[in-house]
Write a structure and sequence with these properties.
single chain, 251 residues, alpha/beta, seven-stranded parallel beta sheet
């Protein structure tokens, strides 16, 4: 059973790996035996490096602005040139913009779609071409807002609905090539993106009242799902979403 979940000998790329969910997923893969590369944008991945190397695995960080299509298209080549074959891709990087619908601007719409959806598509296409028929694992990070509408986040909601559909479409086409495409939908996780919600007494209370587990999630709560989807344990799992939400969607 241990061998079924082992990632020893695998190489993974995690986008947005400097902090938060990306850092936790990179750490989880390293503890399962994978060498890990991460993309960074606005901050260095110093702590992620420490965590991965403490697990005894190789680490690489690649500066990349995923809002620029040319950067995204060249990323897989940049990583493989320095790191070797990519066996696992986790499309984690994402941004969010909040505003009332009447005030939501085109720039905030476009910026979010570029990072949250277009980059996911571009990296999936590039890494699938790289993996060929040798196979691999592609894991997209979706959201509860892949199922719900949310409040004041139209571009984020649109992007995460689309990520779920894209996961299924890619899974259908790539399964025959031994490439598994699945996604994880985190619930309300305590990260920098949700700090404003946690600091708002009313919204914080409303959110906690709906979560059966009675607490905000931790980024590390996603580790098990990620290792499962990255490992041989999920070889016959295609086009699925694992919701890790403390029971939010069941309520």
């Amino acid at each position: 059973m241990e061998a079924l979940f082992s990632l020893v000998g695998k190489r993974a790329l995690v986008t947005g790996g400097a902090s938060g969910i990306g850092q936790a997923l990179a750490h989880a893969l390293a503890k399962a035996g994978a060498d890990v590369a991460v993309t960074v944008h606005s901050q260095p991945a110093v702590q992620t490096r420490e965590l991965v190397e403490a697990a005894g695995r190789k680490f690489l960080d690649i500066p990349c602005d995923l809002a620029v299509a040319a950067n995204t298209r060249s990323l897989i080549g940049d990583v493989t040139a320095q790191f070797g074959t990519i066996d696992i891709l986790i499309n984690n990087a994402g941004i969010i913009r909040r505003n009332d619908l009447s005030e939501f601007c085109d720039a905030d719409w476009d910026d979010v779609l570029e990072v949250n959806l277009n980059a996911v598509w571009q990296l999936t296409q590039e890494v699938a071409n790289h993996m060929g028929t040798c196979g691999g694992k592609i894991i997209n990070v979706a959201s509860l807002l892949s199922f719900q509408g949310g409040i004041r986040v139209p571009s984020y909601t649109a992007s995460k609905h689309a990520v779920l559909g894209l996961t299924k479409a890619c899974a259908n086409e790539l399964a025959a090539k031994n490439i598994n495409v699945n996604c994880i939908a985190p619930g309300y996780i305590a990260t920098a993106n949700t700090e404003g919600l946690r600091n708002d007494p009313l919204r914080n209370r409303q959110i906690l009242e709906r979560i059966p587990a009675g607490r905000w999630g931790k980024a590390a709560d996603l580790s098990g799902a990620a290792v499962f989807l990255a490992s041989a344990a999920s070889d016959y799992v295609h086009g699925q979403v694992i919701v890790v939400d403390g029971g939010w969607m069941a309520r």
